């Protein structure tokens, strides 16, 4: 390969990088103006270097400049995706495909710059005495450059004893060199580089526009609302009824009824809390006490779980081994710690073998532990706060089905029990969206038109490093607290994009979930936050014990297993010492993803499929990849007692994909109290006629 070809490829790589930077300028000028200005500078410098390479291919200084440009872009991007940059977003930039393409082009350019001797020829950057070129070489180079030469072949300036080179001679020399063997290919590459730069600059803005919202820019025909029953759409977004704490207590009656409820303007029959779908939102503060009188008017047993709460799992607290019989009133008393993480939690029925049908028919609602906004900078503390509770239903004969539920069947996805509600917001005003998947089985792959998610909380854990995302995947039980803003007026959409949970799992079409109408005068620009809490530190903690769990399936018998066994309501699967830090290695040998969930003690994800995972917070739910492995660590602190871990696809939990863990002082044997509670739960389920679901030793 000749130097002409190498120079042409180097010009092409630099031009392509400059084109990508130019294409992304409009997006970054809207979201982060300083970054947009930096991209303008990079595009101009890159374009100038590419043009110089094509015009002066023999100038040894220009490949050096191209190499420095490529190194600078790669290093700047590497820093930008690993450390916060307060002047720009205040968050590390997410690694995106268009950035990887740009870096690949710059790596190619750097390789060819090195091959051209850019960095080894630093001595040629400035002219010096004692040049090793012969007079003949000097005359030849200067003629190529169009500079006059003296009659004796010595260097000189035109007009000072030199004979000027005529234009026709200059063109003749250039044509001869361009058409000589080995030179034509280099000239063609340079011509292609010019064309590629023009095409890239013209086409990439369109690509960047598509990339900016990904599939969110596709047509409404591809993302319909698609209800499975007659319902209203386009109504203003309505928040569920709130029950708030006062003077440190939230005291309320929470009735469970099978009754007709309003879902998107239609009357459907379901099992619900407090007469609404979803149930009322419980709003408390760290240090409060939650006192509920749960009145079960159903003709079947149930219980109540506060998902994500780090509270006692025994007695009348968050005890999923407890049974609340049908036609009974029961007290639930939960002391919320003063150091409870603020964020979005949820509550739902959790009696094994009845979980899916009760949650699917309506028995779930949101809990908000206040205090998250107080961690924001002063300019964001008046942020608009919106709950986005995601819950689906399938209606047959005017009632939500609660038997033989097919999570892969057509379903109606609601937001706060509404279909495609409309949220009106002020231009450029920051909004806090509390995204919560409180469905029984289905997943969401969320995206926004015209904005990105700035994640400030995951599973009600304020993040140690705020991060941006174009898409967020929410398996059942998952929550994210995010900040968003739309810098331009217009109509935008919240979407769930098409996704599959694996070859043995479900496949979901894209759907429009909500409409956002942005208007009014633009609000003052406020910097995004950098951090809302400490980063998790379990990756460097001493590990007291490593446990291995394998999630698997027996499709022929519809059995879902952990370590080859189904859930047994008379067995404790793991006994842990209070205060121990453990590492659990969780493998998924099935052909679909499973969301792993652990009660009481949140965990840090350490690695996924053997690769270190950059955890920005603790979490309580993590997807297990198909045929893959997730490694987590957690400290079992503060509370003795038994609780469970399971797949949060509730059909899988009911079919056996759950285990019991008990925290004791010694970590050796399960307690007598836990074994008694398990026997009582088993007996209650047997009397209710669900024995066939329970014990499968």
Structure description:
This protein is α+β, with helices and mostly antiparallel strands and 697 residues long. It has 3 domains: 3-126 and 181-216, no CATH class; 242-519, Sandwich (Immunoglobulin-like), CATH 2.60.40.420; 538-694, Cupredoxins -  blue copper proteins (Immunoglobulin-like). The protein has 11 helices and 35 strands. The strands form 8 sheets. The protein has a 6-stranded mixed beta sheet with strand order 13-10-15-20-17-18, with no helix packed on it. The chain has a 6-stranded mixed beta sheet with strand order 26-25-28-33-30-31, with no helix packed on it. Helix 1 packs antiparallel against helix 2, helix 2 (33-55) runs antiparallel to helix 3 (61-80) and helix 2 (33-55) runs antiparallel to helix 7 (184-213). The chain is globular. The protein starts with a helix and ends with a helix. Mean pLDDT is 84; it is low at 84-94, 122-133, 145-163, 198-221 and 691-697.
């Amino acid at each position: 390969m000749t130097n002409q070809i190498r120079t042409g490829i180097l010009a092409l790589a630099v031009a392509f990088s400059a084109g990508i930077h130019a294409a992304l300028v409009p997006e970054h000028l809207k979201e982060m103006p300083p970054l947009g200005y930096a991209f303008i500078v990079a595009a101009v410098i890159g374009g100038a270097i590419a043009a110089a390479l094509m015009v002066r291919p023999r100038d040894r200084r220009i490949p050096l400049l191209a190499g420095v440009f490529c190194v600078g872009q790669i290093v700047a991007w590497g820093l930008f995706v690993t450390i916060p940059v307060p002047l720009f977003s205040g968050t590390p930039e997410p690694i995106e495909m268009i950035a990887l393409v740009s870096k690949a082009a710059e790596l190619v350019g750097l390789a060819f710059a090195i091959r051209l001797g850019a960095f080894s020829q630093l001595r040629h950057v400035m002219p010096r005495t004692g040049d090793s070129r012969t007079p003949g070489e000097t005359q030849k180079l200067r003629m190529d450059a169009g500079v006059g030469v003296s009659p004796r072949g010595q260097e000189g300036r035109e007009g000072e004893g030199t004979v000027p080179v005529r234009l026709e001679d200059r063109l003749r020399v250039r044509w001869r060199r361009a058409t000589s063997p080995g030179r034509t290919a280099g000239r063609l590459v340079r011509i292609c580089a010019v064309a590629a730069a023009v095409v890239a600059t013209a086409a990439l803005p369109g690509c960047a526009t598509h990339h900016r919202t990904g599939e969110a820019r596709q047509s409404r025909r591809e993302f319909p609302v698609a209800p499975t029953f007659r319902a209203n759409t386009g109504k203003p977004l309505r928040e569920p009824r709130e029950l708030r704490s006062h003077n440190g207590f939230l005291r309320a009656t929470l009735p469970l009824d099978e009754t007709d409820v309003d879902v998107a303007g239609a009357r459907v029959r379901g099992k619900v809390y407090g007469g609404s779908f979803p149930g009322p939102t419980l709003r408390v503060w760290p240090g409060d006490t939650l006192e509920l009188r749960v009145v079960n008017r159903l003709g079947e047993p149930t219980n109540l779980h506060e998902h994500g709460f780090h509270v006692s799992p025994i007695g009348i607290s968050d005890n999923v081994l407890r049974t609340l019989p049908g036609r009974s009133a029961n007290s639930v008393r939960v002391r919320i710690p003063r150091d409870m993480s603020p964020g979005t939690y949820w509550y739902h029925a959790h009696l094994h073998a009845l979980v899916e049908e009760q949650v699917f028919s309506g028995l779930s609602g949101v809990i908000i532990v206040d205090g998250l906004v107080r961690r924001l900078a002063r300019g964001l503390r008046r942020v608009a706060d919106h709950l986005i509770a995601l819950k689906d239903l399938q209606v047959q004969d005017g009632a939500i089905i609660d038997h033989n539920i097919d999570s892969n069947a057509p379903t109606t996805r609601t937001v706060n029990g509404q279909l495609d509600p409309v949220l009106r917001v002020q231009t450029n005003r920051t909004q806090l969206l509390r995204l919560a998947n409180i469905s029984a089985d289905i997943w969401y792959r969320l995206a926004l038109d015209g904005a990105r998610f700035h994640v400030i909380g995951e599973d009600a854990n304020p993040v140690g490093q705020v991060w941006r995302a174009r898409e967020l995947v929410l398996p059942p039980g998952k929550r994210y607290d995010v900040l968003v803003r739309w810098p331009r007026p217009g109509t935008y959409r919240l979407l769930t994009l098409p996704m599959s949970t694996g070859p043995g799992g479900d496949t979901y079409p894209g759907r429009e979930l909500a409409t956002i109408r942005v208007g009014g005068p633009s609000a003052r620009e406020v910097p995004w936050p950098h951090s809302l809490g400490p980063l998790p530190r379990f990756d460097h903690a001493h590990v007291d014990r490593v446990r291995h769990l394998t999630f698997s399936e027996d499709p022929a018998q519809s059995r879902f297993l952990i370590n080859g066994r189904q859930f047994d309501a008379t067995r404790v699967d793991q006994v842990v010492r209070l205060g121990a830090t453990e590492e659990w290695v969780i493998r998924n040998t099935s052909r679909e993803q499973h969301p792993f969930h652990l009660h009481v003690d949140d965990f840090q994800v350490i690695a996924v499929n053997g690769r270190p995972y950059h955890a920005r917070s603790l979490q309580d739910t993590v997807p297990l990849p198909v045929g893959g492995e997730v490694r987590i660590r957690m400290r079992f602190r503060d509370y003795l007692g038994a609780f469970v871990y399971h797949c949060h696809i509730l059909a899988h939990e009911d079919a056996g994909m759950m285990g019991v863990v008990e925290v004791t002082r010694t970590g050796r044997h399960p307690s007598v109290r836990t074994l008694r509670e398990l026997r009582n739960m088993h007996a209650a389920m047997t009397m209710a006629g669900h024995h066939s679901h329970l014990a499968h030793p």
